[in-house]
């Protein structure tokens, strides 16, 4: 089954705590995962940042929202138990529990109003429509911005001159750790007549090995297997075993399969979307606009001697 949303986890969590015992967060995670029949793979699914498992993140926010409503409490850090108010709600035999249901509690209304007041750009700290936790909403927004930026980068590249495209490829490879200095990398390239560049770049600053490059600034033309075959054949003359084929468009399935199965040499294919992603990751052609810091409690600070 799919990983339950935080709203779908609120009532099961409250029922789990109905025995009035105190549970650790780890115990809640394990019991709820078993109740939901989650596979190991589903439990390991993470947010796009790869820092937090989705399921544990959603259990945590289910607990947080119910805590803000006064339904559960945390006697100690990392622990949770039901309150009298939470028990009263269970006595009503609810069939489900949504964020809107928590609005009957003044403490929850105060929490959401405070969140809205502190951030005028967000209507609510809870994404009721998409039923996502704040981390999920934030990371989704980040990914959308990144995808939009990647599209803008490719559009910009297609309007630039060939010489600029040549410099862009060199700058990116240097930022990724290849080619030594820019002067050394720049001397290794030469223009071709088909809208691309061919060149050789050092794999490291010592020049212990060389990587051959072919780049195509194509927009609507898909790179097929014949182009990869020609590139592979060109590597045979100098006895090269490593190559990078970059395009601002895409590769056909046959081209990818051919590159994957070549014997005795390694050819890496970088399409337009990957090129834009690398440019963003290695800060080529982009600049930092805004930084949002997400902080958490420093438990060590509050340890008393």
TrEMBL record:
Tagged with keyword Hydrolase: yes
Q: Which InterPro entries match?
A: Mrr-like_N_dom (IPR025745), Restrct_endonuc-II-like (IPR011335), Restrct_endonuc_IV_Mrr (IPR007560), tRNA_endonuc-like_dom_sf (IPR011856), Type_IV_Methyl-Rstrct_Enzyme (IPR052906)
A Pfam family of this chain: Mrr_cat
Q: What is this protein called?
A: Restriction endonuclease
Q: Which UniProt keywords apply?
A: Endonuclease, Hydrolase, Nuclease
Enumerate the Gene Ontology biological process terms.
DNA restriction-modification system
Any idea where the Restriction system protein Mrr-like N-terminal domain is?
A: 6-91
Restriction endonuclease type IV Mrr domain sequence ranges: 158-279
Q: Which organism is it from?
A: Romboutsia maritimum
User: PANTHER family of this UniProt entry?
Assistant: MRR RESTRICTION SYSTEM PROTEIN (PTHR30015), TYPE IV METHYL-DIRECTED RESTRICTION ENZYME ECOKMRR (PTHR30015:SF7)
